[in-house]
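Let us practice reading a record.
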Amino acid sequence: MTVSKEAQATAGTGAPSHRNKHWHAIDWAKANRTVKRLQTRIVKATQAGRPGKRKALQWLLTHSYSARALAVKRVTDNHGKNTPGVDGIIWNTPEKKINAVRQTGRRRNYRPQPLRRIYIPKASNPKKLRPLSIPCMADRAEQALHLQALDPVAETTQDPNSYGFRRERSTADALAQCFNVLSKQTCASYILEGDIKSCFDKISIEWLCQHVPMDQQILRKWLKAGFIDKGKLYESTEGTPQGGIASPVLANLALDGMERMLHHKLSSSKMGRSNKINVVKYADDFIVTGATQEVLEQEVKPLIEGFLAERGLELSSEKTVITHIDEGFDFLGCNLRKRKGKLLITPAAKNIAALKTKIRKLVEINAHNTAGELIKSLNPLLRGWGNYYKPWVSKQVFADIDSFLFATVWRWARKRHPTRNSTWRRKTYFTTQGNRHWVFTGQVATKAGNLHSIHLFSLASIRIQRHIKIKLDANPYDPNWESYFERRLHARMKDTLTDRMDLQMLWSRQSGICPMCKQPLLPEEAWERHHVIWRVMGGDNTLSNLKLLHANCHHQLHSTRSRNQNRDFTVASPGHANGLGKT
């Protein structure tokens, strides 16, 4: 590639060549600063409508050592780090990781390997399977590298009410927007529930290569790599494979513009009355509101069909329906319906049934295990499910599921001890906790081998808490929004760590920052507690001797043991963090 004068002129602020011989010698704080600085400039160039400057900055980022190192770090830290592609290779040692950094980003002669096809049960219907295509580690790192340059552009240009697979956005934001556009008496009464047929599998490769703002040759190679299923190589002619790191962003970009197109063409009817058109999209699931059934059927739906056809996609005629708000509809695991003029967002009946099925299966699996092991299996499921639904009208549903849980674990105890009477079962497996009676309890062993009590989590104990929706134009790559996202993170962490006061105090004391890499400690990442004075050197488990670190940073620290075993940290506090505050 010939680098433009603009790119050469910009190179001075690009990524420094702090090339290292060892994985644990990489300065992650410096690498993150370098990449963030370039991403900020990419955002500004995109906002200013300067595609030449944006491309030059993207080239700099994808050729920087910092971005390459962070790309390898991403694919070796995530949940799929032990899942190989067709070559069977995983990067599970520091030597393999640093060698991968050297190899990643070599555009010349780059040729991605075919993807490994596997099948997993669908979340909506476990009896049906959906295909996943797993790239090899080298291609995952390549995707992670280019995604660092693509995602800032995508975040700057995407429709404001697109919430799926985007940083700092969630299903809760999408549902909160549904509430905003449907709750008032003057809001739209009809909803088009959109369902795109095999969205990821059918997107036009040619459309993506012509419209996605990244290196087209690299993108085409990814999309045309093919896949191996049961030992046979198949050609890729359409779609972006589910399983690739870049696939969600590519799918978002393919659907980007639908909201703006509908607002532009249907903002008001011929009679001057508002059509009440609103779009809420999460990945390939979306709804469109409308003042009447006719405007959705005769105007909105044809426009969407034309929009999708350009991208090789089509609506499912069976699943795309128009519904009155009083009848209600399911979206993102919730049921939205107006009753006596009031909009209620509640857990969907099929999701409640699915939870009960999972509970029954876990109880069956633990039929011969201890009560403690059963509770350890159930509690993460219950907490996750409850936290998902706590912003909505869920209190009664939580109480009903608690009743179902009690009946289920009581049957478990009765089957486990058929010769014992009810009084014995109650004394053995149930206790009182505060004002809660009949709390299912058991014991589990700690790492040190000591036993401690564990209680079944109660969904009814969850406090219903309204979700504060993200602002429409908030951009996590734009420094103008940095203090806004810091405040949201502190509020989220205060809520997430409600039951873990020790972690909350550590996180608050460090202002939510890892002292090694100087990056935020996010709830979706792996953390580890580091003893400032190691236990083998006489250190204890008091909070004053503990720091929270990213798991990778903790491993890096311990890899240079002799130099760092008594190292302390100076933690930079975010300028506008005011959520938890310091303790």
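A brief commentary: The two ends are 53 Å apart (CA to CA).
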